[in-house]
Amino acid sequence: MKNVTDSFLSLGHWPFAGSFGFFNTDILSTNLINLSVVLGVLIFFGKGVLSDLLDNRKQGILNTIRNSEELRGGAIEQLEKARARLRKVEMEADQFRVNGYSEIEREKLNLINSIYNTLEQLENYKNETIQFEQQRTINQVRQRVFQQALQGALGTLNSCLNNELHLRTISANIGILGSIKEKTD
Questions:
Q1: Residue 130: exposure state from Cβ atoms within 10 A (0-12, 13-18, ≥19)
Q2: Residues 49 and 145: beta-carbon distance below 8 Å
Q3: Fewer beta carbons within 10 Å, N or C terminal of the chain?
Q4: Cβ atoms within 10 Å, residue 149
Q5: 171 to 3, 11, 184: CA distances (angstroms)
Q6: What is the mean pLDDT of residues 73-82?
């Protein structure tokens, strides 16, 4: 803990390569450090949550796929019923061929077209549902990972900073700002 405190207190005594005032303009060193800290925190705190979220969403998607397959099975069952009806209509067509062969053929084609349209609509609905669920899952995972990472980072910061360290850091920063003001005056 003393090393952390000393590193905060000695902040004003670091040499500033390529900087002016108290701002460090060495973009490569500051961004790499910040990026590595953020990535480390995200990986450490977010991996368990992310794994659980992905498993839950996987189960949700699998359930959606199962439901879609059940709907598909129902559509196939309807198709079989329609085919049975078609066979019945064809037998009746043989009996009524003299009276209205062309009208029966039109009914048959309409029935087949409506069944294929229904199957096509069900397939499109299944695909849209899967895409919607995937996108929603991705968005939820992103939100939760960000929230967990932010909560973890805040928790880490709060657990590391006690009142004494906080006051010492503020005092050191006030001293640095005072020395800068004296130099500019």
A1: middle
A2: yes
A3: C
A4: 20
A5: 17, 12, 20
A6: 90
